[in-house]
Design goal:
heterodimer, A: 175 residues, alpha+beta, Alpha-Beta Plaits, 4-stranded antiparallel sheet, B: alpha/beta, Rossmann fold, 3 domains, 21 helices, 17% strand, binds thiamine diphosphate
Chain lengths: 175, 555
């Protein structure tokens, strides 16, 4: 089954995440990942949702999402050219003798060391899901103490963009 | 001038031309009730249980086509509304529900009579609001009425904390709504409309399958014109009944689980299926592989999410049924379909609806007599069960909005309160409630509301001493083991009715009905008729579970 990436603009209103998540749960759609945050406008948030399913299912997901009053715009960008990133922070066991080796691995993935403990090192790494998986696997032998990972965020390449239409930008619903 | 939010709310309702509210008071809605006290334009109907309020608002909305409004207090008041909200949601009934909430500062503390009603009703409302900012009241109400009534209608809930209701605001009612995430499509795509018109020309065996969307869009007249113009037989879903004249030669009756065999066979044989304002519900489609296997499928609906949800559609068309049919009509070329219509006629003759008459009083007979005496002019409200299906099969609805019944949720207890709402929404019209001894006992307390409001509802109780529909299921699927479906105690319904001051009768024979029914129906005032019917009667035809629509069994 294919994975689809939806870029969804929603009202930045309380409960909007519950509405979206609840919809997925009760209709039996599986969320692969979901990332949400404010856009350049305080009244609008963007959700980047990755869903697994065939064409008809994704069509149902999109149509059902559209029925939510707080959902303003949905773009399925899967078939377009886009840049996507995830962020991971990994705390790994690092005895003093292993640090150079681990730093070397981090260098390969362009990960940055952000914290140091007496027996641990913490890295941050951004990239596509695949790269982050590879980074994680490379550190696994040393012993991963903790891992925090965001969902995927994505943006169209070139001059294309997913944004409000001028009319939508004007009609700020403040409810 | 500054007024309280509660006062502003009443003002908003007056601006929305709300004439009636069904409700039940409590601590958290004290300010709202106090504001209602001063309204001269809005009538408040006090029910006896909040479920009664929401079903009554529902019945009112179904007969009038307007937004039904109800109100309940926080906590138990709000949860008592839940079933009725789900019911309105499933049947796409326009409704605005107000609930009281504990003061803002107490929200989230498990305060006395606190429930998260916006959370609870998230999956069963078209939208809902928790009003935290007093200044937003009028905009929220404006939006709520707009959302409830437009597109595919549905219930919208507004939860108002007590302190918000008491806050003072300067009142202004917005003239327009601003909802950038909500823009229903009404006009059908022109190229699709011409494509559909062409398909009509090519089809040899078309069938129109029409649902509740026809009634919701007030498109019954256009549907009739379309059917006649393309000479296509019409079958209705349960929700679609009354959207096409029941005595019309092109009418096939209801389809599906308890549909007529000729409707189901017409679906099986058709080469073009025109779904209009219907959603291919599982009670209609039955086994998907044998549903309209030879047909090109056209699906016209205002809700894009219904298209392709259940079956693959060849020509989808999103928009308002009435508008689309209006645009379609001038494009239609007359085609000779005498062969297909002959086939339909012979199917009807071969597989008529029938039941075995004997010395007992058959429920089907009573429905036939109801039809004989009203000729489709009455508003028929039903509860849920066998009696409901017999009404669907044997009463020939003539005009839209004359059937009020719980379709999607199949909610026992809907009938009596919905009849109260229907009677208030259609003063001067005859309102007949057909109910079962199981269903009516779920909301029987609303007899008091009915009498308090001086409503002349005629209650026809099909008393089979059983939960007939489930009993029937046990007959077929549990080898006749009747677990918890035969009542061991039978109240004296005549005495109950009389206790409320309602003239009551018991009919035991066909003769009782033939003699007594006209008087009951034609006399002014309410009446309660306890009809003793046999417990073993089954609703037939019926498509056995897992089977195709073409495999119904009859008596
Ligand atoms: C609230 C609710 N509970 C349970 C059911 C399941 N159910 C469907 S029909 C039925 C029996 C209805 O009995 P009655 O009202 O006497 O009507 P009859 O079928 O006998 O005509 C039951 C229990 C339901 N539809 N609604």
């Amino acid at each position: 089954m294919e994975k689809h990436t939806l870029s969804v603009l929603v009202e930045n209103s309380p409960g909007v995440l519950t509405r979206v998540a609840g919809l997925f749960a009760r209709r039996g759609f599986n969320i692969d990942s979901l990332a949400v945050g404010r856009t350049d406008r305080a009244d609008v948030s963007r959700m980047t949702i990755v869903v697994e399913g065939d064409k008809p299912l994704i069509e149902q997901v999109t149509k059902q999402l559209h029925k939510l009053i707080d959902v303003i715009k949905i773009s399925n960008i899967t078939e377009d050219e886009y840049v996507d990133r995830e962020l991971v922070m990994i705390k790994v066991t690092a005895e003093p003798g292993q640090r150079v080796e681990i730093l070397h691995i981090a260098g390969i993935f362009r990960a940055r060391a952000v914290d140091l403990g007496s027996k641990t090192m913490t890295f941050e790494c951004t990239g596509t899901g695949g790269k982050i998986n590879a980074f994680e696997e490379s550190l696994r032998p040393y012993g991963i103490k903790e891992l925090v990972r965001t969902g995927k965020i994505a943006m169209l390449r070139g001059s294309k963009f997913v944004a409000l239409s001028p009319a939508q930008a004007r009609d700020a619903e403040s409810a | 001038m500054e007024i309280t939010v509660a006062e502003a709310l009443v003002e908003c309702l007056e601006r929305e031309n709300v004439e009636i509210i069904f409700g039940y008071p409590g601590g958290a809605v004290l300010p709202l009730y106090d504001a209602l006290y001063h309204s001269t334009r809005i009538k408040h109907v006090l029910v006896r249980h909040e479920q009664g309020a929401v079903h009554a608002a529902d019945g009112y909305a179904r007969v009038t086509g307007r937004v039904g409004v109800c109100i309940g207090t926080s906590g138990p008041g709000a949860t008592n509304l839940v079933t009725g909200i789900a019911n309105a949601y499933m049947d796409s009934v326009p409704m605005v529900i107000f609930t009281g909430q504990v003061p803002t500062i107490q929200i989230g503390t498990d305060a006395f009579q606190e429930v998260d009603i916006t959370g609870i009703t998230l999956p069963i409302t078209k939208h809902n609001y928790l009003l935290k900012d007093p200044a937003k009241l009028s905009m929220v109400i404006k939006n709520a009425f707009h959302i409830a009534a437009t597109g595919r209608p549905g219930p919208v809930l507004i939860d108002i904390p007590k302190d918000v209701a008491q806050a003072r605001i300067s009142f202004k009612y917005p003239s327009t709504v601003k909802l950038r995430g909500y823009k229903p499509t009404y006009k059908g795509h022109p190229s699709k409309i011409t494509e559909i018109a062409k398909l009509f020309g090519k089809a040899k065996r078309p069938v129109i399958y029409a649902g509740g969307g026809v009634i919701a869009s007030n498109g019954s007249e256009e549907l009739l014109k379309l059917a006649e113009a393309i000479s296509a037989p019409v079958t209705n879903t349960f929700m679609g009944l009354a959207g096409f004249p029941g005595d019309h030669p092109l009418f096939l009756g209801m389809l599906g689980l308890h549909g007529t065999r000729y409707a189901n066979l017409a679906i099986t044989e058709c080469d073009l299926l025109i779904g209009i304002g219907a959603r291919f519900d599982d009670r209609v489609v039955m086994n998907i592989n044998s549903f309209a296997p030879h047909a090109t499928v056209i699906h016209i609906d205002i809700d894009p999410a219904e298209i392709g949800k259940v079956i693959t559609t060849n020509v989808p068309l999103v928009g308002d049924v009435k508008l689309i049919l209006k645009e379609l009509l001038p494009l239609i070329e007359k085609v000779d379909r005498s062969e297909w219509l002959e086939r339909i006629k012979s199917l009807k003759e071969q597989y008529p609806l029938s039941y075995n008459r004997d010395s007992s009083l058959k429920p089907q007979f009573i429905v036939e007599q109801l039809w004989n005496h009203t000729k489709g002019e009455a508003i028929i409200v039903t509860d849920v069960g066998q009696h409901q299906m017999w009404v669907a099969q044997y009463y020939h609805f003539k005009k839209p909005r004359t059937l009020v019944s719980s379709g999607g949720l199949g909610c026992m207890g809907f009938g009596l309160p919905a009849a109260v709402g229907a009677a208030l929404g259609a003063p001067g019209r005859k309102v007949i409630l057909v109910t079962g001894d199981g269903s009516i006992q779920m909301t029987i307390q609303e007899l008091a509301t009915m009498m308090e409001q001086c409503l002349s509802v005629k209650i026809i109780l099909f008393n089979n001493s059983a939960l007939g529909m489930v009993r029937q299921l046990q007959e077929y699927y549990c080898e006749g083991r009747h677990m918890a479906t035969n009542f061991q105690f039978h109240p004296d319904f005549e005495m109950i009715a009389r206790a409320y001051g309602i003239p009551a009768y018991t009919f035991r024979t066909e003769e009782d009905v033939v003699k007594g029914l006209p008087e009951v129906l034609d006399s002014p005032g309410p009446a309660f008729v306890n009809c003793i019917v046999p417990p073993g009667e089954n609703v037939l035809p019926m498509v056995p579970a897992g089977r195709g629509i073409n495999e119904s069994v009859a008596c």
